[in-house]
Amino acid sequence: MPADATQANPRPSSPRRRSEKSRTAIVTATRELLLERGFDGLTIEAVAARAGVGKQTIYRWWPSRPALVADVMLEDADKILASVEHTDDLTADLLGWVRKLAATLTTARGSAMLRTLTVACMEHEDTAVKLRAGFSLPLHDSVRTRLLAEGIDEPTAASAADAIVGGVVYPILSDAQSYSRKRAELTTRLIVASLAR
Fold it and tell me: What DSSP character marks residue 81?
């Protein structure tokens, strides 16, 4: 190979590092702007400006604004999604789980994330499918699986999981500041007590 061939096609210095740095900057900028402006106020232009990248860099990884938001939300969802413990006390297991869920979702970041997830799901079906699979379904399945382990039949376990998860999420969406862990616990106790009957 001629000596000048290697100079004509020099190896890129470290494209993966540069790309990962840009990707991290985009995710961070998106997260910050979602907290500041919400889903409706977030634009690709604003993300690009804050991340210090061009719009085309964002579109290289995400085909649309909802797709970007979904991925960022799902990264944060990992901090919220936790399995219900399996001890010999169903009530204690579920109470421990709803306490953690309510504590997380009533923080400024948690309630903003929940609102963003809700709006994104209502407005964009592709995003909704992704967010349901990565966030809503794992929340529900965690509770349902614990109830099934207690010997509760599938339809009842699914409905009770709807009631427990919905009983925490809905009031937080309505008014996160006034929602308390005690209220989450009371809702859960009422549902578990109804199963015992």
Answer: -
Q: How far apart are the first and last CA of the chain?
A: 83
Q: Which fold has domain 74-196?
A: Tetracycline Repressor; domain 2 (1.10.357)
Q: Please state which CATH number belongs to domain 16-61.
A: 1.10.10.60
Residue 43 gets which letter from DSSP?
-
Q: From the first residue on, what is the mean pLDDT of each consecutive set of 10 residues in the chain (197 residues)?
A: 47 53 92 84 94 93 86 77 89 94 85 78 79 86 96 97 94 87 94 89
**Is the pTM higher than 0.70?**
yes
- Give CA separation, 115 vs 70, 76, 82, 110, 149, in Å: 13, 13, 20, 9, 32
Residue 68's SS3 state is helix
Residue 69 pLDDT? 85
Q: 132: which 2 tokens?
A: 């349901």
Tokens of 117: 């997830």
Q: What is the pLDDT of residue 79?
A: 67
Residue type, 148: L
Question: Are 40 and 34 in contact, with CB atoms under 8 Å apart?
Answer: no
Spatial contact of 111 and 55, defined as CB atoms under 8 Å apart:
no
Give the integer Cα–Cα distance in Å for 95 and 189: 8
